Amino acid sequence: MRLRVSVEVWCTTFAAAFGLLPGCGGQSFSPSGATTGGAATGGATNTGGVGHSGGAKMGGTSTGGTSTGGTLNAGGSGGQVITITGGGGTGGSSGGPAGGSGGEVTTNVCSNSQPILVNGSDTGFISCDNGLKHRARAVSCVSKLPRDAACTDPNDPSTVSQCSHDSDCTAAPNGYCSFEPDTWQVAAPRACGCHYGCVSDADCGEGNICECGDSVGQCVQSNCKDDAACGANSLCATYDTCFSHAYGCQASGDTCLTDAQCGLLVEGLNQRCVSQSPIDGTTGSRQCSRCPVIGRPFLVLGTERLAPLSNSTGWQSSDTSPDLSTLDAATRFELAEAWAKNGLMEHASIAAFARFSLQLMAIGAPAELLAQSQSAMADETRHAKDCFALASAFAGTRLGPGPLAIEHSLDDITPEQILITTILEGCIGETVAAVEAEEALCFAADPAVRRVLQQIATDESKHAALAWQTVRFLLVEHPQLTSIARNVFAEAAREMPSLQAKDETSALLAFGVLGSERRWEIRRQVMTSVVARCAAGLFEAANMESRAS
């Protein structure tokens, strides 16, 4: 896919942040410290494992030893390979030490399988000890609707709601009235609203199945109806979509079964077992990866934290009003959902910069860096308010963030951990966010949306530059951290987050919402053409400055 924005220019922009003009020099980095003339290179690649390098990692140096079929991504092991045929993967090399032979894990592993019952009735779904869930056969769900009990807001019974009883919800079959403050649900957040479930797959439409629930089933994305549709030695099993879950046939390229097998990408950043081919709406191979974020993620114990969506006041800018005259209800809902997600992520970025300011003080950073961090908090506050204003306009109801959990967010403020989070949150996260906003601006037609995107693109580029400056300061002050920085960049370059499939339509583009394929391509180009080259230049500059001092 061809992008409208020129990614190359961003390399020069960030190189200027740490004094490397005129630019990038076409170099990239490798875990071993050598620079090359092209895209980022790594150590050995495990062809029988998860595709991570067999070179140096956070846990030490790989020896290319034999895999025991144990934990995924363990430093130096051949990794697990999951295969329908049951054959073991073989290690390979690509400019580094050879990996070991892969261990065997078949796709249909389900120990101590138990039928999932709802109200004593078999649902056709099976749970396994390893956390896997799959659909053995399609079974009609038992419905308790309509229920007699009235729905009320548990926090404020006087709240005006869309409905009070299930019988009020008649727009579609299986309607029910419920207080469901789902993080991503924008139709009726933080109030009693009408929702519509299912009792069979026929209620859900193509590409979905009915997953039975306590009162009624819910439609869930799936590319298979049951295990039989997947062929021998494969299950119609769950996988992570980052914001929810879906079902799909297990594939020969799978390298994980559940999130529990994934562990850390690098110290401080958890991975999840997600589908790596989301663009065409089908299930690709399940790979350990991390989930995408907009802006600077707030990482705590290796996981991005977000507040729940709510009807909170004071989080909507007063001068952001998109033109709704040409939008139908379905498009407005999609736009509300997309901009509400952006708002929650920008809101989390405020917390990330609040912590970053304390981290800067903990490492004795210059006052200028601290001042930029404080300014960035104000920027992210403005971004969040603008995003929530757009989401509220599209949804027709006030939307904002609920309370954000901050427990354990300051547990580790060592220079090493600060370095890791700054690279992941800033050098990569903010850089991708800036380019995404610039690309969306190329398509956006609505004046209010264009103003918001222009501000986000400008500010996020400043925030990314701050991250690059901070990493340089850390490497000059603590040159022993250089090998860790190399590995964080290298590991991030080798993994690509899974994105939920979203078609790119002219209506969504006109209001600043990019499709999955375009966002995927943006990250790919940013990692190879911007982050890799800037990292190589950064290591060179920090090394020269450290020697001079």
Summarize the helices and strands and which ones pair or pack.
Elements: H1 8-17, E1 80-82, E2 103-105, E3 114-118, E4 121-127, E5 133-135, E6 175-179, E7 192-196, E8 208-211, E9 218-221, E10 236-240, E11 245-249, E12 264-266, E13 269-270, E14 272-275, E15 286-289, E16 299-300, E17 303-304, E18 309-310, H2 329-362, H3 367-395, E19 400-401, H4 415-443, H5 447-477, H6 482-494, H7 506-510, H8 516-548
Parallel strand pairs: 1-2
Antiparallel strand pairs: 3-4, 4-5, 6-7, 8-9, 10-11, 12-13, 14-15, 16-17, 18-19
Helix pairs in contact: 1-5, 1-8, 2-3, 2-4, 3-5, 4-5, 4-6, 4-8, 5-8, 6-8
Q: In percent, how helical is the residue content?
A: 25-40%
User: What is the second-level CATH architecture of the domain at 327-400 and 413-548?
Assistant: Up-down Bundle
Q: What is the CA-based Rg, rounded?
A: 24 Å
What is the arithmetic mean of pLDDT? Answer: 75
How far from one another are the termini? 46 Å
Q: What is the spatial order of strands in the main beta sheet?
A: 3-4-5
Key terms for this structure?
549 residues, 3-stranded antiparallel β-sheet, two-stranded parallel ribbon, globular, alpha+beta, Ferritin
Report on this model:
By secondary structure, this protein is an alpha+beta fold. Among the domains are: 120 residues, no CATH class; 210 residues, Ferritin, CATH 1.20.1260. Helices cover 34% and strands 13% of the residues. The chain has a three-stranded antiparallel sheet with strand order 3-4-5, with no helix packed on it. Helix 3 packs antiparallel against helix 5, helix 4 runs antiparallel to helix 5 and helix 4 runs parallel beside helix 6. It starts with 7 loop residues before the first helix and ends with a helix.
